[in-house]
Amino acid sequence: xxxxxxxxxxxxxxxxxxxxxxxxxxxxxxxxxxxxxxxxxxxxxxxxxxxxxxxxxxxxxxxxxxxxxxxxxxxxxxxxxxxxxxxxxxxxxxxxxxxxxxxxxxxxxxx
Length: 111
What we know:
three-stranded antiparallel sheet
C-alpha cells in the first residue's frame, strides 16, 4: 500500500480517499479505526495490530500529536519483538512509505 497524500482530516492511499482514522496493513485497510477513549490507544484498541505481529508498527498521533499510546501497548509490541514508532501523522506517513509492506500504520488523521 502506498500513501500518496495526507493533510488534516484526509488521506489518499492507492488512489482512494479516506477521512477517518484507519489502520494500514500490507494488503488492506481497516477503516474507521476508533478508540474507546478517543485520543488514547489502549491494548484493546491495538489488538488487531498486535494479533498480526508485524515487524514494525508506526503510530500517526495526529497533525499536532494529540493522540497518545499507552505504555502497555508499547510494552506488548516490544515483547513480541515488534518495533514501535510514534510520530505526528505527517512524518508517520513518510516513515510508513519508506518501510513499505514490512510495517503497519495506525493513523489519527486530525488533531
